[in-house]
């Protein structure tokens, strides 16, 4: 089979991952309440971790002490991302959540340019400004009001994702660590944080209490988040980057906010009003434009072993490849 046809075949499951991720905000909103955020996070990843440990046990045993510590520290940032995202989606619409978090696509190159002291092209800065303006309109809903607390939490999550991307790409301690083992240790560290928070009095329901209160629909939603939004998404990305280019995969995953907005409006009845609709378009145009400008500045695409760590393959996360685009699944 020709490489071009193989690449097109790889596009289908990757596009499905983008759609699944776009739906994850709606799924999380349906399963989680303000009182069950940490409990749901513990339950969600308790399903995922054993599978990752079994799949990557050889790689885990090969990790050095510094790699374990580095991945564990990255897991603390990952925990902050999940907490901000999950609390945020509880307090805002699924449409707003999916579009605001997409600002990571423009925040990351801006932050990287500051770290490297490299000037970004004017076209990128214009695209970033367009995205920020879009978010400002999006958060107004049907009228001009202050952004909701959930909107601000999602904005914080976008900033935290940017920090995570930069830390993943620049941390010397995780060089040589495979993507699967690195993800497993990070998730293990994050789950430890969630479990500690869930055990603190006054932070909400315990995982056991939340599990007892779940009905069949809640369990289906939780399994969807665990199996499809995390395991399926991660392994599809690993499969796809071996058969196509990281940038091509990243471009397809960049359609996530489109799916989030479409599903939020179609299934959740989100009604952003005319300011929100205009803002949605501006966010999508701005992030797409910014990504294309950043991609043109990046190195030529090349397929790579999915077990290479991001630090091995690129010291700059301008092109957010699947292994450096933030969270391993939504």
Automatic annotation (TrEMBL):
Membrane-protein topology: Multi-pass membrane protein
InterPro entries hit by this protein: Diverse_Substrate_Transporter, EamA_dom, EmrE-like
Family: Belongs to the EamA transporter family.
Transmembrane segments: 12-31, 37-56, 68-87, 93-111, 123-146, 152-169, 176-199, 219-237, 249-268, 274-294
UniProt keywords, alphabetically: Cell membrane, Membrane, Transmembrane, Transmembrane helix
Lineage: superkingdom: Bacteria
Keyword Cell inner membrane: no
Name of the protein described by the UniProt record: EamA domain-containing protein
Signal peptide: none
SUPFAM superfamilies according to UniProt: Multidrug resistance efflux transporter EmrE (SSF103481)
Stretches the record annotates as Disordered: 292-330
Chief site of localization: membrane
Species of origin: Streptomyces asoensis
Localization annotation: Cell membrane
Ranges of biased composition (kind: Basic and acidic residues): 293-307
Domain EamA: start-end pairs: 14-139, 150-287
Keyword Chaperone: no
